[in-house]
Amino acid sequence: MKKVIPLLVLSAALLSGCGGGGSSDSSSANTGGSNVSNGSGSNTGSNNGGVTGGNTDAGDTTGPSAPGNVIVPDDTDFAEQMLNAVNQARAQEQNCGGEIMPAVPALTWDYDLQEAAFRHSSDMANGGFMSHTGSDNSTPDQRIADTGYSANAWGENVAAGQKNIPAVMAAWMASPGHCKNIMNGNVTQMGAAMVENMDTQYDQYWTQVFARPRS
Questions:
Q1: C-beta separation of 58 from 84 below 8 A
Q2: Where in the sequence is the domain holding 154, given as residue range(s)?
Q3: What is the pTM of this model?
Q4: Confidence of residue 76 (pLDDT cuts 50, 70, 90)
Q5: Is residue 187 part of a domain?
Q6: 143 vs 7, 75, 95, 200, 209, CA distance in Å?
Q7: Contact (CB, 8 A) for 110 and 189
């Protein structure tokens, strides 16, 4: 039977907070829950006290392992290519859904954030779903905190069905919420992961995690 090619899906969760004088539209973390659609979604809030939920039971803090029938890209090549793609976007002004976002400094790669991203992409690939909420009910800020990373600001982009980094970056940059996460000047570090499971609806499951460490 011929496999039906699904619509590509992506979703963004943004929490932009600060330990100093910054502000945002909401004082609650991840207020809108997860947004899963054929377009995009964005959740906003503030995190003035740092990451919340670090002491919440989020299940296995190491996250689910990748299933045996998945493909995980080589860490070094993937990290370099994804970081370069994000920093190329950040190096110039971007139009995010009609809002002009100025160029912002380049990010550095962080392996704790990569661990959080890999945990979530593996979870989505194992379960064949796409959401900001993990199968263990973990939220993006919990997954970041579970690695030991202490964040003052964070954001997460997820997507499913894109075949490679250029394709998923094009989809994210064309979506206002995801574009704003990538162009967020409040974050300084990132990690990302893609896990592929060809036995599921969307095949490829992508996660980008952005953060600024608490000083």
A1: no
A2: 75-213
A3: 0.72
A4: confident
A5: yes
A6: 27, 19, 30, 23, 10
A7: yes
